[in-house]
Description:
The protein is mainly alpha-helical.
Amino acid sequence: MQAAVNNVVGFSSSTVEEDINIFLEKLALKSERTKESYGRAIRRFFMWHCGKLLNQLVVTDLQITNKKMVQYQLHLKGLTDETGEPLYTNSTINQYTSAVISLYEFLSRDKDNNVRAEDVKLDMLPDDGEKYGELDWQEAEIMAQLVLKQKKGFEKAALIRLAYKTSFRKSSLLSLQLTNFKFNSESNCYIAHVVGKGNKKHEKPISVELYNDLIAITKLKYYARYNDNKIFHLSDQGIRDMLQSLKQEMGICEERNIVFHSFRNSAAGYIIETGGGIEEVRDQLGHSGYGALNRYMHKNKNYSNMAGLKMGEEIDKALFESMSKEELLNLIFTQSEGFILTMQRQINN
């Protein structure tokens, strides 16, 4: 009799895993990336729901109440990193729960599974793509200069500059060590290497000058009290107080909702303003997809630069030749910073 029970459990375990794999392979017909992300989300859910791997599941493990599904959503919402910041955005939580909902919709079509798609239905969390106010890089640099007056001002200034130039998240910045930086002789800069959210590897260049500032932090007298090799030793509350003080000093109203995460998005705005494209923004922010980037690409749209107007338009060389040196220089310096820097590099070369 016990052998028969074991056989039933073994058969059920195999059946559940096979059904889930069939669901994932169906997704792979359209997108291998979707299959992988849904697979991770489903494994995460069942480990939370019943503490089992997929190959350990039996049919009864599929049973779930809607209340427990809501609890799972709240569980994801409540997770934080080591600095107290939310570990997942609403968009990410929606992705994780959508994978489970889609699986149950698939499984509910087979009566042998005895599950209902309705049991896992959830109201999606509101989009938090616009959660953080925008801060341009010039404002960020002013903050880096003003903060020098505060306690640990030199360290705070370096943190701000790293934040807006690399777009690294606060948790990544606070865990940085000098060993995270490697010199690149070809570009005469240092490359910062970090592992960010979702265990993704990111790398961004910084100037030799900024790297030297990081070294200088480790030479400060108070730094001797630390022995963890981390560059920054600023608390989450200390960073919030720093930012609040800077906003008040600069007259930045609360309605703009400027938070530390706003530094991360400063470079994205700069890229668009200087003629960069969506791939450059995507690389700067470390996004794997494109959905969250739409707000950058449609900001201050310049229709005169769109292909429909530029195609077929001829260059009138005589018009430029008729201009004086002063007129040409005035014209050049009214162009975007990215355009001027590109010309500068061509002249240097």
